[in-house]
Amino acid sequence: MTDSKSDNRPTRALLRRRELLWLGIGALSGASAVVLGRSPQPSGQATAQSPEARSFEVSGDRSLGARAAAKGILYGAAIDRSILADDTAFTARFVQECRMLVPENSMKWRSLRPSLDTFDFNAADQVVDFATQHNLEVRGHTLVWHQSLPGWFAEEVTRQNAEQVLVNHVQTVARRYAGRIHSWDVVNEAIQPKEKQTDDFRNSPWFKLLGIDYVELAFRVAAEADPNAMLLYNDYSLDYDTDEDETKRNAVLRLLERLKSRGVPIHALGLQAHLDGQDSHQLNPVQMQRFLREVADLGLKVFVTELDVKDQTLPANVDQRDRIVAAAYEDYLSAILAEPAVIAVLTWGLSDRYSWLSEFKPREDGMPVRPLPLDDELQPKLAWNAIARAFDQAPRR
Ligand code: XIL
Fold it and tell me: Of the four listed, 29, 70, 201, 273, which is most buried by Cβ atoms within 10 Å?
């Protein structure tokens, strides 16, 4: 009977977790801790209460930007050029909440580079001008990435000209906005251990053309072109207590160590933090804090650059769903804001009216996704409260 008892254990644990998830309390860190055998009250955790039991109460009516600023943290969000032109209610709300913006697409290669020989700064200029008008800091995103490369790239960029193409791009773009950019995502998503390349690099076009040196080159050229901007390495899947994320954290740490030891001008790590409401129980605050301390010990700051919470597979019920999403925001932010090296938080959009997840992670039931702080009517959701609470409880930096 002992055998069958131990055989049953994983199944029971799994069922229990499924039940919890179905009930909408899967993100309950205390309960997952019981199931997974982790400490139920890790440090930095605001609360181990279930999403259903949490009050999400917030005092006062200050904006997210003001609450973050009171702690020495910058809060902002991604915004697209098309919104600036079309949606004045949204932009007014954006300006109330945010102290910083990041162009969601306007500074990517596909937007800036109609051809190998030309640049089109029209969209990016509009976003930067909007920021200047409204006193918002600007993050540049992103100088080097394997995605969003224009159609001509594969044909026209070769081993012979790749270095010159990279230098020319980074130099031209960073110089144009020099002095107006708070921080640049110089290199985005260069690490992907699954691809089994040198130093866990992603087998991206840049890696294929230039090997691992392209990262260092991009940082050096960016620093020369805009000596005042903070320069970041930005990546995803660094958030959870899974083998995949742990391997990636280690690989990113090794990249950062190598860059620092070679005197490369890099100032911060960007955690994209595209979280999943379904996976919140996989957050391990102690492990995250240890990782962030290691990054900070290298003399680097940390930004949360693209925060949102996927609700693709969460219950259809909007109240339940909003609670799970809000709990995921609160647990994540309270865990990582315990580390004073974290100095900026940006959500990847502000309102459910515009989220990349409606296209990239739509729900099977056809209901609109609800991953952001404001709903599609621009009203605050529990996610807004959760972020506000995390800022209010964060230590000052
Ligand atoms: C996404 C945008 O939100 C979409 O509009 C676009 O179609 C594709 O890119 N990681 C990143 C961001 O660094 O640039 C991505 O943005 C989301 C994932």
Answer: 29
User: Does the CA dihedral 286-248-363-374 come out positive or negative?
Assistant: positive
Any residues with CB less than 8 A from the CB of 239 and at least 6 apart, and which? 245, 271, 273, 275, 283, 288, 332
Residue 245 to residues 194, 250, 251, 290, 291, Cα–Cα distance (Å): 11, 9, 10, 14, 11
How much is the pLDDT for 22? 31
Q: At what angle do helices 285-297 and 243-261 cross, to 10 degrees?
A: 10
In sequence order, what DSSP letters do the residues of 21-50 get, joined into one string? HHTT-TT-HHHHHHHHT--SS-TT-S----
Alpha-carbon span 89 to 78, nearest angstrom: 16
Q: Which pLDDT tens digit goes with each residue over 294-307? A: 999 999 999 999 99
Distance from the alpha carbon of residue 396 to the mean position of ligand 1, in angstroms: 31
Q: Using an 8 Å Cβ cutoff, are 329 and 386 in contact? A: yes
pLDDT value, residue 367: 98
Assign domain 14-393 to its CATH architecture.
Alpha-Beta Barrel (3.20)
pLDDT tens-digit readout, 154-174: 999 999 999 999 999 999 999
Q: Which residues pair with 301 in a beta bridge?
A: 268
330 belongs to the catalytic site: no
* pLDDT tens per residue, range 214-259: 999 999 999 999 999 999 999 999 999 999 999 999 999 999 999 9
Atom of ligand 1 nearest to the CA of 185: 13
Pocket residue to mutate for ligand 1, from 356, 358, 359, 361, most atoms within 8 A of Cβ: 356
pLDDT band at 23 (very low <50, low <70, confident <90, very high): very low
Q: Would residue 358 be called left, alpha or beta, if left means φ above 0 and alpha means ψ between -120 and 50 degrees?
A: alpha
Q: Which residue has the tokens 């997210």?
A: 64
* Ligand 1 pocket mutation, candidates 104, 142, 355, criterion most atoms within 8 A of CB: 104
pLDDT band at 49; cut points 50, 70, 90: confident
63, 96 Cβ separation under 8 angstroms = yes
Distance 204 CA to ligand 1 centre (A): 17
Distant-in-sequence, close-in-space partners of 376: CB < 8 Å, separation ≥ 6: 351, 352, 353, 368
State the DSSP H helix or E strand holding residue 269, giving kind and residue range, or none if neither: strand 268-271
